[in-house]
Specification:
236 residues; alpha/beta; Rossmann fold; DNA polymerase, domain 1; six-stranded parallel β-sheet; globular
Length: 236
C-alpha cells in the first residue's frame, strides 16, 4: 500500500538549475575567481551532487595541482563562494524567479487529502529549500512534510542513498510503501539504492541521463494523479 511520497527539490519540485547557474556565476564575479560556467559546462557539472562539491571538482579540473594551503584556504574559498551563491539564489527565488513544476502542488494537495505523508530528500541546503517552499506553499511549509532530509542532515551526497535512508527512518515507513520523485540519474541511483520505486521527471539539464530502473519517466506531473501513481506502485 502506498503511504508516502518523497520529493527531491532542485529540478524535481521546480526548474531551479538555471537560477542556480546564474547564482554561481554571480559569486564567481563577486570573488573575481576568473570562472564562468555556461549552460553546457554546468550541465556536465550537475553530474556532481552538491554545490560545494561541484565547485571543488571544477577547481581541480582547471588546476590539477590544487592543494590546501594556509589552514584550509581552498575550503575557505569554496565556503565563501557558496555563501555568496546561496544569498543570490535566495534573493532570486523571493523575487519570483522560480515556480513549482506543473502538477507538483496539485499532487501534494491530493496526497494530503487522501491521508498520504509527504517528505523531502535532497542534497541542497536548508536555506534553498525554505526559499523555494515559503513562496510556493507558505510560511508554514515545513508542517506539510513528515520528514525533511537535506545537506545538513545527510552530508553524503547522492548517488549515495544516505538522505533517503534518513527520511525513511524519520517517517518510520519501509521503502515498499513509498514513492520517490527525482529528475537526475544520481537521484535515481540514490532512491533505488534505498529500495524506493522512483518516478522521474527530467528537465533540460538532465534529459540526457540514463534512467534505467525508474518506475516511470514522464515529462512532468501535470497529468499524473494519485490513482495513477497507486497503479504504477502496485504493478512495481
Amino acid at each position: 500500500m502506498l503511504k508516502a511520497l518523497i520529493f527531491d527539490v532542485d529540478g524535481t519540485l521546480a526548474d531551479t538549475e538555471s537560477v542556480h547557474l546564474a547564482a554561481f556565476n554571480h559569486a564567481f564575479d563577486m570573488e573575481r575567481v576568473g570562472w564562468h560556467w555556461d549552460t553546457a559546462l554546468y550541465t556536465r557539472l550537475l553530474e556532481i551532487s552538491g554545490g560545494k562539491e561541484r565547485m571543488l571538482h571544477h577547481w581541480r579540473s582547471v588546476q590539477p595541482d590544487l592543494t590546501e594551503l594556509g589552514a584550509g584556504a581552498v575550503q575557505a574559498t569554496i565556503d565563501r563562494l557558496h555563501e555568496l551563491k546561496t544569498a543570490h539564489y535566495e534573493h532570486a527565488v523571493r523575487a519570483g524567479a522560480v515556480e513549482l513544476r506543473p502538477g507538483v502542488l496539485a499532487l501534494m494537495n491530493e496526497a494530503r487529502a487522501q491521508g498520504l505523508h509527504l517528505a523531502i530528500a535532497t542534497t541542497t541546503s536548508p536555506v534553498n529549500i525554505a526559499a523555494l517552499l515559503r513562496g510556493a506553499i507558505g510560511p508554514d511549509w515545513r508542517s506539510e512534510f513528515l520528514a525533511v532530509g537535506d545537506a545538513s542532515s545527510s552530508p553524503i551526497k547522492k548517488p549515495n542513498p544516505q538522505v533517503y535512508l534518513q527520511v525513511l527512518g524519520d517517517m518510520g515507513l519501509p521503502a515498499s510503501q513509498c514513492l520517490a520523485f527525482e529528475d537526475s540519474a544520481n537521484g535515481l541511483r540514490a532512491a533505488t539504492a534505498a529500495g524506493l520505486r522512483t518516478v522521474i521527471t527530467p528537465n533540460s539539464f538532465t534529459a540526457h541521463h540514463d534512467f534505467t530502473g525508474a518506475l516511470r519517466v514522464v515529462p512532468d506531473l501535470g497529468s499524473i494523479g494519485l490513482a495513477q501513481l497507486r497503479e504504477w506502485h502496485t504493478r512495481g
